[in-house]
Amino acid sequence: MILVTPDNNNRWVYTMHGLEKPMDHISAGGVMAGSVATLAVLWISLQTMGFLGQTGSITASKIPISIQTYLATYTGLFAGLPSTDYRHELVIDTAGFNKRRLPHIHEKALNASVNFAQTLVNRMSRLEANIANAGIGFSEKSPSYGQYVHSYPSDDALEYGTDAVIAMTASSYLAQHHCQRFGISNDECARLVSTLKLHGTPLGPSCLADQFADCNADAKYRSIDGSCNNLENPRLGSALTAYTRVLFPQYSDGIKELRRAERKRKLLPSGRAVSLSLSVAHDVIDISKTLAVMQWSEFIAHDLAHTPMRKMLSNREPISCCHENGGMLSPRHIHPDCAPISIAEDDPVYGKHSVRCMNYVRSMPIIRPDCTFGPAEQINQVSHFLDGSTVYGSTLKKSRELRSFQGGRLRVDIRNGNTYLPTADSEPSSLCHSKEGCYMAGDARVNAQPQLAVMHTIWHREHNRVARKLAQINPLWNDEILYQEARRIVVAEIQHITYREWLPVLLGRSYARNAGLSTGKSYSRNYNSYDDPAVSNEVATAALRFFNSLKQGKLSMPDETRQFNNSLQLSDYFYNPRIIESDDVFDGLLRGLATQTCQKMDTNLISDITYKLYKTDGEWGLDTISLDIQRGRDHGLPGYNHYRKYCGLPEAKTFDDFLDYIPLEMVRKLRTLYNHPNDIDLVIGGMAERSEDDGILGPTLQCLLTEQFVRTRRSDRFFYDSVTQPHPFTPEQLAELRNVTLARLFCDNGDNIARMQPNAFMKPQLGNELTSCHNVEAIPSVDLFAWAEKAKAYR
């Protein structure tokens, strides 16, 4: 835990409190590793809060200084440090505070702020009743409906969100009453307020970190919601907790209002204006990468993050920020949680339909993980671990709804002789547009588009295939053992494909290897309980959104000879996925993922998602770039330039300084849109960068995703190749798991897939030729006989 307090010289003192339990059971080597890891986490934490500068530059073979530090072991930066020192202090001067006295805020003032905030929230019911009585809302045929389903908040998220709204309002009250008269800026005030604890106020009992969890340290299987993965902090990384941050947030008021421009806090350009200027309908394909790269990226993004939107507090009705026809609402009908995106009258698409307003409801907040007042943080509805939550869910209730409780298998619907995901009978999965109903999976976004539904179905079938095989091998295993063992194998397969096949394509093979993301032939020993598994807000909100750039509008459905005979138009099937059950559509889309090339990584996105997103019967939908930009501002993400600096690139003083990684024509466009280099949104700057070597991402997104996936692996006590988990896979089992590939998953779980190339992420070509699915030398399979075991071990 890092404590932040001012000392007598008005300087911030950062204190790392490390091990709080006796260490008698840990060896000398373990103590040294713990001390080193603690210092590494402290160093990274200071960097991510924006206090420590970066040096060096990023290249294809050199990872950023921040990540090099994170990967440090016993040498270099930490050489010679005492191995038994668990408390370290680092004093950092902050330019804003070093010449004036900080205000002291008493506990009485903290309680008064919470009570005031509670009063304001209680008064919200009158406004919400007026909005509801005025009939402000959207129908099932509107694009806003698809947006609502995609970001649907669970009941639990709503409960946490209500407390967070009170905490945010109280923080704003403190900032207004205790900072302005001292001449403290909004950003400085936010840092001050974030040192004030909620303990002792009415919000104290709402702190998740203080909630008790009864964990079994010897449990063989991970929990569904991610709790008890970290035994020292059982809630760390679990569902319904806050994202972490790489950099301290930048809200215009320091606490919760959308980020504004650098100069005089002016408004930033409309997200739609940015999208319209930068995204041109100019198809440039990636000649070597298949559409499977895009689809796996979206699948993993959903496994790691799900940010819900807010609802009305009093009646829990959805919020609409625009008229259904795209008109602006009158001021008296605008909910405080609205942040609609303005659209110019001369917009070439929306203008002819008189659409001036694009719906955007702000993301659901949650009380800060360190239980303090301060800037808003957003909630993640799924677990932060890479744990197959897309397949199994992130709540015990959802996981049980998906199970058949027979032979360890998941529920299925049988249609046309093939098995599909079960039909949903509850919100939000039941809210889609298909007349036959939509699918239920671990993640309700399964229904967003047909290729995603195919990917979910492949893994659903894989679980049942594994469970059936295990039942044959071990006939005395009961339903629970079969379910948990099959789930454990499936999660391991997802993790292996992600780190072995996908990340090298994304980041470049040499880069991934140098960053320690490669999987070896033996066990890994890098689990660290001090690492925070939480997905960073920057990765969830911006970096992982790169997959939109790779999408194709026309989804090819080749036959077994890889001839392109049929196709689907993406925009015709948003939240209408049942088309995959039609004749050969399922296998056609599956072959298409492994055959059709994805779009090149850039800011040019297909029209299906730049103005037809969630389109139903009308001619227009929403714009995903506009929504991504607005969400980044809503979450207080600093501008792209700050992340360049964090990742080791020179800080841009002028727009021309971006020319090192952004093409000239793109820089010219950015200059016309933004007034200052610091104004450029992270998602835009990241997608605009040129890639290096054999990866597809530029250096900034490359850096942010590397940092994330290093932590995702190191902080997971149950990561598949970790020898330190309570019951590691045997050497024979681990060797078999390393045989799995996405190609093998396609072969084993399609309706009738006969041929596939060994690396499904790369086009079939010399060295990656199409081959028979029966050729286990070219496309290895996992021999589940490695799990044959005497039943007495499970009695």
From TrEMBL:
The keyword RNA-binding does not apply. Keywords: Heme, Iron, Membrane, Metal-binding, Oxidoreductase, Peroxidase, Secreted, Signal, Transmembrane, Transmembrane helix. One of its GO terms (molecular function) is heme binding. One of its GO terms (cellular component) is extracellular region. The chain crosses the membrane at residues 26-46. It is found in: Secreted. Pfam families: An_peroxidase (PF03098). InterPro entries: Haem_peroxidase_animal (IPR019791), Haem_peroxidase_sf (IPR010255), Haem_peroxidase_sf_animal (IPR037120). GO terms for biological process: cellular process involved in reproduction in multicellular organism; response to oxidative stress. This is Peroxidase isoform X1. It comes from Cephus cinctus.
